[in-house]
Amino acid sequence: MGKKNKRFEHESLQDKDAIVCYLKAVIQGFKKGAIEVSDEEDTITLKPEKLANLKIKADQSKNAQSLNIKIQWSSDQSDDFEETPLFIDPKKAKKKKS
Amino acid sequence: MQQPAALYEPLRFLTLELQKQLYQVESFLESGDLARAEQSLSRVDYIDNHHLNLLRRISEHTRLADQTAEVDPVTLQSYDHINHSLKTLSRQLQEIVFQARNAPKTAFRLLTKKRVRATFKHLTNGLELIEPAIEAEASTLAIDICRLQVRIDQVCQAQLKKYQNRLRKGQQTDALLNASFIVRDLNRLGEALLRIGEGIISANLGQMIQIERYHSLEATLSALSLDPLEEALTIRAMGETKSGCTISGVMSAEESEGEMLAVFKAGDKTKLKEEKTGIESWHEIYPGIAPKVYSYHNSGNKAALLFEYLTGDTLEKLLLERERKALREALAALFETLENIWQETRIETVHPAHFMRQLKKRLKDVYQVHPELESQSVNINGLKNADLKTLIEQAEAFEATLSTPAAVYIHGDFNLDNILYDPLSKEINFIDLHRSDYQDYVQDLSVLMVSCYRLNRFGPQDRKLIAQTMHAIYDYGRNWAETIGDTDYELRLALGLSRSFLTSTRFVLDSSHAKAMQFRARFLLESLLKLPPEQLHTYRVPREIYHD
Lengths: 98, 548
Description:
Chain A is an alpha+beta fold. In chain A, 26% of the residues lie in helices and 24% in strands. Chain A has a two-stranded antiparallel ribbon with strand order 1-2. Chain A has a two-stranded antiparallel ribbon with strand order 3-4. In chain A, strand 3 and strand 4 form a beta hairpin. Chain B folds into 3 domains: 5-209, Phosphate transport system protein phou homolog 2, domain 2 (Methane Monooxygenase Hydroxylase, Chain G, domain 1); 230-308, Phosphorylase Kinase, domain 1, CATH 3.30.200.20; 313-546, Aminoglycoside 3'-phosphotransferase, Chain: A, domain 2. The model of chain B has no long low-confidence stretch (mean pLDDT 87).
C-alpha cells in the first residue's frame, strides 16, 4: 500500500500515419510484455498479464467520431501473501525428492 | 416468550373470560338450559373489552418499538396473533350458542356424548395451558396446545361419522342434522388452539412460522421417539436455503448451550424427497459421508426431514475466514475422500456431464437476473465475435467429440458450503445431496472451483486465497486425470468451468463480479473453439482465470 498511484497522460494532434505508429508501439509493448511510458518527471512500466479486459467503444455524432480502446488487467504488487500451494501433487513431490 | 406486563395482563384477563365463556357454553350444551346460554353470551362484552385493550396496547408498543426496543417485533406479532385467535374462538362459541338455541331438545340429547365432552375437555386444557406455555422457555407446552387441535379433530370426526350413519337410517333427521352442525362448529374451535400455539412458538423461535411446518416437525420428532414433551427439546431457527426450505436445529433444552441433536429441514416435498433419496443412496454406495436420516414425514406438498447434525465447518467458512491452515487440512482430507469415493464407486458405464446442455437450460434464469449479459454478435473491422448462444451451440458440438471416463458417484451440487470438515476427527461430510448421481467427476470439480470464485469477497488477500484454492482443486483433478489416463480432462474442465461461471451469476448480485464471471465463461469457450486439432491435448485451463 506504500506506493502512490501513478498516472501518465498524453494528448496531441497527429496524422494518420503517426497514429498507426503509436498503435504499433503499443502492440510491440504487448508482444514484449512491457509497455513503458514516461514524461520528464516519471516513468511507468506496465506489464500486461496473460489475460486482460478489452473494451472497445465507438461513438459517432454529427460533429465528431471517436474510438476508445481500454485494456485493463489486475496487477499485484503486494508480496506479503503466502504463496505455497494448498495442494501438493504427491507424484511431482516424489519426483523432486528422488 | 417475553411477558411485558402491559400486554401479558390483558391477555391473561382475556384468556380467563374465555375460559368462563367456554364453561358456560359447555354446561348449556350439556343441560339445554337457556339461562346458561344467556350467561355465556353476556361474557362476550368483557371479552371484547380485553381484546380491544390488548389490541390498543400492542399498537402502542409497535409505535414505540423503534425507540425503546423493549419488546421485539416478533413477540408483538405473537401477542397480536394470540389476541385475534382468542377473539375468533369467542365468536365461534357465540355462534354455537345461536345455533343450539334453535335446535330441538332431542339434539341436546344427541350431544351429551363422551366425544363432545372430550372436545370441551381438550379446549379447556388448551386455554389453561396458554399461561404456562407463555411463561415457559421451551416450546413444548405450546406444541401441546397445537396437538390438542389434532385430538379435537379426531373425536369430532368420529362423532360426525356416527351421526352420518344414523342419518342414513332416516330417523331423527332434524335433531341429527342440528347436532352435526354443532359438532362441526366445535371441531373448528380447535383451529384457534393451533393458532395460539403457533403464536407462542413463533415468539420463542424469533420468527413467525407456519404451524403446518412445525406440525411436521412434531410428527417427525415423534417418529424418532424424541417426544418433544419427554425430551424437553428446543428448536432454533438456523436459516433458509436457496430453494426456500427452512432449517432448524433441534437441541435438548436442559443445557443452555444446548448440544445440537439434529437438523430439521422443512419445505417443498419434491426437493426434500430428492434429498432423502440422495442421502440414502450415499449410505448404500459410500457409507459414512452423508448425515443419518432420523425421520421423514410429509403431508400434501410439504415435507420435513430430520437428520443428523454434523459437526465441523463448511469449506466456505474456512475460506472466508482465511483459516489457511485449516483450509489446507480440509482440502487434503477432501481430496483423499474424493479419491476413495471415485475409486470405490466407479461403474462400467460412461455418463457425460453435457455441460453445454446444462448451460442452455439455465441461460434464461441467468438473463433474468443479469439481462445485461445477453450479448449480441459483434464485428470489429472484419474480426467477428459470436453471440453467446451461437458460442454455446458450437461448444456443444465440440463437447460431443470429447471422451469421458467411466462414471463415478458424484455429489451433484458440490459447492464449498455443502462440504463439512471436522478438524477434530479430520473427517469430511457432504450435505445437500438431492442431486447426487453417477456422472463425470469433472462436474463436481468444476462446480467446486466456481463456488470459490463466486464468493462475494473482494479484498486482495481474499481473492488470492480463493485463487489458490481453485488452483489446488485443479491440480488435484489433473493428478487424478493422469492416474486414470483421462486425456480430455482439461477440455471438459474448461467446459464445466464455463458452464458454472455463467450459471452461478444467478447468485451473484454484484454486476461487475457477474461480468467478470461471464467474461471467463466466454473466454474459455472461445479458446476451446479456436484450438487447432494438434493442440487439443496440450491445452491447459489458464490459471489466470482464477484471479480477479
